[in-house]
């Protein structure tokens, strides 16, 4: 059985991850690649319940370690019930956020010891790491404005203040720097079509996709 490809999208608030994920999903479907788009926190019905607890309410609602455990609880459901079976059956997974977000948000920005996150990561993910991580990078002022305009109501993290968001941006760049084979940083301060073409070309080249897939 061929294994699928696991791609994650990461970045700060309002960087356009979800839009870019959809555009890549459409492209892959157009060349007959079996693909599932999903997200964290969430992605399963249990995970979506946990998401509600994380993205709504007061910023100090949880202590940072509890918050980390909630993200990993959602992730465990997601990996066990959706990501792992899909990858093993040869499907591609496009996931809006994954473990890098926990390192950036709960580790770098909320101060949870990175060693603890590393340990949780080993236990919960069983080394199920993305094959490719696309990190969308944008000055925080632009991202926060976009997120505010979008107004989907899940504002708990958006409200965490500028220093928090600046730390996040730097954290994602550091993660990319430390994982050059897995991570690709894309400038998100461009038109969405330009960004999407860049991502599609990257994926086509990396996985040697061509229109012949259409015939397969
Ligand atoms: P989204 O707005 O990109 O859908 O993500 C929901 C929020 O959850 C976002 O503000 C970042 C946050 N988050 C974490 O703090 N840690 C994590 O591990 C994940 C996956 C998301």
Care to describe what's here?
The protein is an alpha/beta fold. It is 54% helix and 12% strand. The protein has a single domain, classed as P-loop containing nucleotide triphosphate hydrolases (Rossmann fold). It has a 5-stranded parallel β-sheet with strand order 2-3-1-4-5, with helices on both faces. It starts with 5 loop residues before the first strand and ends in a 10-residue tail after the last helix. It is built from 8 helices and 5 strands, in the order βαβααβααβααβα. 35% of the residues are buried. The chain is globular and about 50 Å long. The C terminus is likely disordered. Thymidine-5'-phosphate (TMP) binds next to helix 2 and helix 4.
SSE layout and pairing:
Layout lengths: L5 E6 L5 H14 L4 E5 L5 H11 L8 H25 L3 E5 L2 H11 L4 H12 L6 E6 L2 H11 L11 H17 L4 E5 L4 H15 L10
Parallel strand pairs: 1-3, 1-4, 2-3, 4-5
The structure holds thymidine-5'-phosphate.
Entry summary:
By secondary structure, this protein is α/β, with parallel strands linked by helices. The protein has helices spanning about 15-30, 45-55, 65-90, 100-110, 115-125, 140-150, 160-180, 190-205, and strands at about 5-10, 35-40, 90-95, 130-135, 185. A five-stranded parallel beta sheet has the order 2-3-1-4-5, sandwiched between helices.
């Amino acid at each position: 059985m061929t294994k699928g490809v696991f791609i994650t999208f990461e970045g700060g608030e309002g960087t356009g991850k979800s839009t870019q994920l959809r555009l890549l999903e459409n492209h892959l479907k157009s060349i007959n690649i079996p693909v599932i788009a999903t997200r964290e926190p969430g992605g399963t019905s249990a995970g979506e319940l946990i998401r509600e607890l994380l993205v709504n309410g007061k910023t100090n609602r949880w202590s940072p370690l509890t918050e980390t455990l909630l993200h990993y609880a959602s992730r465990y459901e997601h990996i066990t019930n959706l990501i792992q079976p899909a990858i093993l059956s040869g499907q591609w997974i496009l996931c809006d956020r994954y473990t890098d977000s926990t390192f950036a948000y709960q580790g770098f920005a909320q101060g949870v010891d990175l060693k603890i996150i590393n340990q949780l990561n080993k236990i919960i993910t069983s080394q199920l790491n993305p094959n490719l991580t696309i990190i969308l990078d944008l000055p925080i002022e632009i991202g926060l404005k976009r997120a505010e305009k979008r107004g989907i109501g899940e504002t708990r993290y958006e409200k965490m203040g500028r220093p928090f968001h600046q730390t996040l941006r730097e954290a994602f760049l550091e993660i990319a720097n430390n994982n050059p084979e897995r991570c690709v940083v894309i400038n998100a301060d461009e038109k969405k079509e330009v960004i999407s073409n860049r991502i599609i070309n990257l994926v086509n080249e990396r996985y040697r996709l061509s229109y012949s897939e259409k015939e397969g």
